[in-house]
Structures are given as structure tokens and as C-alpha cells.
Amino acid sequence: MGRSIDIDDLTVYQRAISIGAKIWAEVVKWQWEDRKMVGHQVVRSADSIAANLAEGFGRFHFKENRHFCYYARGSLFETLTWISKARDRALISAEKCDELNQDLKALQHLLNRYIASIGK
Questions:
Q1: How much of the chain is in helix, strand and coil states, percent to nearest 5?
Q2: Which of 103, 8, 7, 19 has its CA nearest to residue 60?
Q3: Hey, which of 22, 62, 79, 82 has its CA 20 to 30 A from 47?
Q4: Is residue 1's pLDDT more than 70?
């Protein structure tokens, strides 16, 4: 009998968790008001990427899994927007913004590949 795959085995999920942790590590350094106004949004959207991947994975149905992956992709794009806003409001450096954007773009590529593979 073959081994069943676990969500933690998926590279796309591992990367989503890692990016959420990176963003959290930045946001906790901010002043209270910045965390409340922008930080809450960027952490929520970043964490939503992994959360939606997990929810879809747990549905055990290809169509539903794909549906939640689309939500994850939407959260990824929302996170890109909040990272840009954080840079524009001088909450993170341009270098940190570029680093996070590169991480998110790499995750987007993995996510698109994962979506294409569901059900095949």
C-alpha cells in the first residue's frame, strides 16, 4: 500500500508557511499603530495563503482543492499589494520589499504549477 501524502509534504505549502513567518518577523518590529493598520492586513493575507492551501487539501476533492488554491492565489496578490504599501509608507526597506516580492513571485509560480497538477 502506498504512502499517502500529507500537506506538510507539499513544497508550495512549506514555502507559504515560510513566507508567512518572514512577514510576521518583520511586522512585529513595527510601532503599534503601524502593526494595527497595515501589519494586521499583511500578516492576515500572507497567512491566508497557507490556510487556503490547507483547507483545499483537506477537502479531498479535486474541484474544491483547486477552488481554495484560487483563494490562496488571490491572497498572494493581496500580500504583494500590502508589501508595496508597507514600502511606500517606509515601514520596510526597498530591499526587504524586493526580497519579499521575489519570494512571493516564486511562490506564485509553484502555486500555479500545483493548481495545474490537481486532478492529474
A1: 80, 0, 20
A2: 7
A3: 62
A4: no
Domain of 52, CATH number, reads 1.20.1440.60
Residue 28 identity (one-letter amino acid):
V
49 neighbors 79 (Cβ within 8 angstroms): yes
Is the residue at 1 inside a domain?
Answer: no
Do the beta carbons of residue 35 and residue 64 sit within 8 Å?
no
Q: Is residue 2 in some structural domain?
A: no
Q: What is the pLDDT of residues 85-102, one digit of tens each?
A: 999 999 999 999 999 999
% the chain with pLDDT above 70:
98
Residue 106, C-alpha cell as written in the block? 516564486
CA dihedral for 73, 76, 80, 86, sign (positive or negative): positive
Domain residue limits at 100: 7-117
In a domain, 84, yes or no: yes
The pLDDT of residue 10 is above 60: yes
What is the distance between the alpha carbons of residues 35 and 46, in angstroms, rounded to a whole number? Answer: 14
Determine the residue type at 22.
Answer: K
Q: Please tell me the total count of domains within the chain.
A: 1
